Amino acid sequence: MPFKEDFISEKDLRKKTIISFLVFIICIALAIFGWKWLHKQPDEYGTAKPLRKVLNYNGGFFSNFFSNDHLAKTYPVSAAVHHVRVNGSDGMSAGFDASAWKLKVARSEGDTLFVTLDEIKALPKTEIVFDFKCIEGWSQVTHWGGVKFSDFAKKYNLTTQTQMNYVGLVTPDKGYYVGIDMPAIMHPQTLLCYEMNGKPLPMNQGYPLRLIIPVKYGIKHLKRIGSIFFSNERPPDFWFERGYDYYSGL
């Protein structure tokens, strides 16, 4: 069957061109209007209120699908990088005295537990090799060792506290702080971590103790934990206050 070419008249071509151009102009105008409107909206924790509502909705929506059965993918130790990238230095003040460090766990008002690193190391050790993801757009397969937070909570009788909605973690200098939803902190892959690549944490990676939480982006993996507390309300969160998503889940 011979090929039949379809021809368009010059009049129709001109009409289609004009319509396409008008649609393009309208889209540009709407984008400019939307941008200006957004910038006129009041801020809520570092970002425009409508955007904050979207972030909060996304966090609530995806948390409905969270489960301890959903595990981050793990890798063999041989896949882990030897030079681990540092994702930020906030809260890592130079005057830190590691010899005086103890983990402070506020069980309730007036009831604070102090735990040494040796006491934490006495608990069953867990290692994980996973793909650490940063909001800056990079990721690395990294190897960590420590104690499951759920094991720590069981050892120190934190059953009542872990029935609450959130846990807050703060560096000793209070320069960095995160809020974590309780299901995520109790996830079986979440560690109070004291080793990297089979050795004690380097200072710039949070010595003596940091959080490793594979179900979250790197902004939630607080380095150098000084204190832990529990709450039914959202604890303060460093990057949330600067416009980022509170949930920060993967």
Description:
There is one protein chain. By secondary structure, the chain is of the alpha+beta class. It has a domain of 159 residues: Oxidoreductase, molybdopterin-binding domain (Sulfite Oxidase, Chain A, domain 2), CATH 3.90.420. The protein is built from five helices and twelve strands. A five-stranded mixed sheet has the order 4-3-12-7-8. Strands 5, 6, 9, 10 and 11 form a five-stranded antiparallel sheet that branches. A two-stranded antiparallel ribbon has the order 1-2. The chain is elongated.
Task: Return the CATH architecture of the domain at 69-86 and 102-242.
Answer: Alpha-Beta Complex
H/E element order? HEEHEEHEEHEEHEEEE
CATH topological fold name of the domain at 69-86 and 102-242: Sulfite Oxidase, Chain A, domain 2
Strand order of the largest sheet: 4-3-12-7-8
Low-confidence stretches: none
Shape: elongated
Quantity of strands, as a count? 12
End-to-end Cα distance, whole Å, is 55 Å
Instruction: Give the C-alpha Rg.
Output: 25 Å
Brief sketch in words of this structure:
This protein is of the alpha+beta class and 250 residues long. It contains five helices and twelve strands. The strands form three sheets. It has a five-stranded mixed sheet with strand order 4-3-12-7-8.
